[in-house]
Lysine transporter LysE
Amino acid sequence: MNIASFIIYCIVVTFTPGPTNIVILSSVQHHGARKTMEYVWGATIAFGLLLAASALLNHVLAGIIPNILDIMQIVGSLYMLYLAYQIYRMGRAEAAPMQTASFASGLFMQLVNPKVLLFTLTVIPSYVLPYYSSFSGSFLFVLLITVIGFLAFVTWVVCGAVFKNLLQQHHRLFNTLMALFLLYSAVMVSGIL
């Protein structure tokens, strides 16, 4: 196993912008870092569960992946569109409070996040199972990848907290850009383009 390639792949996928990271950054601006950590814990648990499911059920999933991915793409795209709309409305007088900073929201977002689903369905079979067939070996890699994901989420929380004043000064522009990034993610995931 090329451990450097494995670590780089995990870092690139988890630290780069995606629906969960965008929501984390936006939530810090509107709910603060402490409240956003509830979302981070939910996202981390779902991330670990998806990795564990991939490790434990790899052979079973291989036969049904196309059906799962189609359903998750639709659900994930719709959820991302909803989040894009909620983020766009944040900070406006008529906007209702958004509940994206909750544990349940973080958990659900990860479970329907196509970026995460594709990552968890590829990283374990590609990097781990060819070299470590034991349950304990797979479990250690699931823990390692989950920790990397958690560190990525916390990095986005810290960046949101550090740049909070700047982002709040330009909240309309920031909210519009974050909503557009989520809209783009939803379109790309849905396969429209």
